[in-house]
Structures are given as structure tokens and as C-alpha cells.
Amino acid sequence: MKEKIVSKASELFLKLGFKSITMDDIAGEMCISKKTIYKYFCNKEVLIEECTTMVHQELHRIVDTITAKDHNAIKENFEIKRMFKEMFSSSDTSPLYQLKKYYPAMYHTVISREIDVCQAWFKQNIQKGIEQGLYRQDIDINTYVIFYYTLLFSINENTGSEKDAQNKELQALEYHTRAMATAEGIIELEKNLLNFTR
């Protein structure tokens, strides 16, 4: 039952917002009593914490699945972007923006948890792109990782609308890729941009 509550609550929080969804809403959606929810979670904050952990694990599982495939570095980034777009397409407001606004302590926990993992993914992708001749050899990898990470998280924590955040993230991905790309990489980028917007 605990896992079912976390799953349903995560779905509702991502779709309608952490602030607006109440324990009554979750109980109503699941046709259970609020008392049942409180049996597992002493308050809404504890439930949100469990939900962010579950979403974090699911995102990482999907990203690991994508990076394990034999995509080139640029296509890999676009496949990850597509996954995020699909996963959060029903959200009205950016989940990170909501967390920062209404649950700042939890937001900082989530961000500190993500920093190392995201930076490792970005670094791995840049190294892969250099080896494939899609990114320039002379890149200072650590600096580019920090640039991209800072850009993405700034977008998510300062953009209220999920649709706007998704559009800006796509522009950030294009910006990041163009800054690193070789001539061959630019061709691959243009192809992926065309396929992504179809």
C-alpha cells in the first residue's frame, strides 16, 4: 500500500503541483481514507520526500537505460531530453520551481543529491562525443559540465511553466552542443533538432 500511495501521490504532485494537492485529494483519488495515508506518512512533507526519491530513482533508471544504448553522444542527449519531455508533459508548473518556492529545504536536498550524478552524466557524454569526433578535442570538459549544469538548473528553478522550461531546456541543449561541436557534430545536431521538433 505504501508504494501505491507514493506512486499515486507522485503522479498528482507532478501533474497539479506540490502545493495544491492535499492528503484528502490523494485519499480521494485512491478511494482510501486519509487515515490510511497517515499510517505510512506522518505528514505531507514526508510523503513529498518519498515521492521525490522515487521520481529521482525512476529518472536515473531511464537515463542509465538510454546511455547504455549505442547512440552517438548528441543523439543520446536528445533521447534523454525526449524522455524528460514525455515524463513531465502533463505538468502545468515545473516540479523544481514548485519545490524551491514551497519546500526550499527539500529542494536543496534534491539539488545536492543531483549535482554529482548529473555532472557525471554530462562528463561521460562529452568524453564520448570527443571520442566520436562530434565534439572538439580542445574542450575543458569540467568547465563545460559546470556551464551546462548551471544553465539547466537555473532554467528549472526560475521558470514556473513546465512548457516554458521544456522549450528553454531544448534551446540550452542546442546552445551547449553548438559550443562544443565539430563540423560533423553540427550536422548531427541539425538532424536531431529536426527530428525532435517533428
From TrEMBL:
Domain HTH tetR-type intervals: 1-59
The record's GO molecular-function terms, alphabetically, read: DNA binding
Identify the domain of life: Bacteria
DNA-binding segment(s): 22-41
The yes or no answer to whether the keyword Kinase is present is no
Record keywords, A-Z: DNA-binding
Respond yes or no to whether keyword Nuclease is given for this record: no
Q: Pfam families, alphabetically? A: TetR_N
Q: What is this protein called?
A: TetR family transcriptional regulator
Q: Which organism is it from?
A: Flavobacterium granuli
Taxonomic lineage from the root = Bacteria, Pseudomonadati, Bacteroidota, Flavobacteriia, Flavobacteriales
